[in-house]
Amino acid sequence: DLDETFEYLTRQSFSVGEAQDAVRDEMRDLFAAVRGWRDLTSCSLSSDGRRVYAVSNCQLVGTVSQQRLIQNTQRHSLLPQRSNRLSAYDLSTDGKKLWSIGTPGDDAPMLKGEVPREIFFFGAPLPVEDRLYVLGEERGQVQLLELDPATGGVLWSLGLLNPDRDLMIDDVRRLSGLMPAYANGLLFCPSGEGSVTAVDPR
């Protein structure tokens, strides 16, 4: 899986005549700076010993003004979106992709009649005793979700917080790489808004 923004900047929109395009060069520099130094969400990885989990397609912050971003209704690879992608790769088959979830069109299973889920995952999931817990935002609510490690299907979700700031313009929440922590039977879940919620997953 190639990152959507990386693919746009290097493959989909590149031609010989654009090789010295100053705007494109600026976008590539911004992409490298954000991914390399600020974006803890895109670089988060975890593993349960059988699979590796990774977040991608987090798009790019800082390309347009906040007002224009909120007014925009079109999906574009250079603009922040309300969803990204969480994928699982099989360690026993040299990294073959098993499933992905978060963006409509991904291959994680859905219940009959269920609407495709748009989820922005804040970091890689936490494996605990054959269970998989992850923090994400769906429809403006920060949630703790349990996923089926084998298929990526959402087993349940619990709302933790309704943030004041829209995800589209909140760079801190988008880039923080938030993951739950587990101790003494509890999951400790940071919200990205300065609070932590303890959840008993049993």
If you had to describe this structure to a student in words, what would you say it looks like?
With 202 residues, the chain is an alpha+beta fold. The protein is 18% helix and 30% strand. The strands form three sheets. Strands 5, 6, 7, 8 and 9 form a five-stranded antiparallel sheet that branches. Strands 1-2-3-4 form a four-stranded antiparallel sheet, with no helix packed on it. The chain has a three-stranded antiparallel sheet with strand order 10-11-12, with no helix packed on it. It starts with a helix and ends with a strand.
Offer a few descriptive terms.
five-stranded antiparallel β-sheet; 202 residues; globular; alpha+beta
- Which blocks of ≥5 consecutive residues have pLDDT under 50? none
| SS content category | alpha+beta
Helix-strand string: HHEEHEEEEEEEHEEE
Measured distance between first and last alpha carbons: 34 Å
Range of helix content: 10-25%
**If you compute it from the alpha carbons, what radius of gyration comes out, rounded to the nearest whole angstrom?**
17 Å
User: Could you describe the largest sheet, including whether it forms a barrel?
Assistant: 5 strands, antiparallel
The number of strands is: 12
Question: Mean pLDDT score, rounded?
Answer: 84
Strand content: 25-35%
Query: What is the global morphology?
Result: globular
User: How many H/I helices?
Assistant: 4
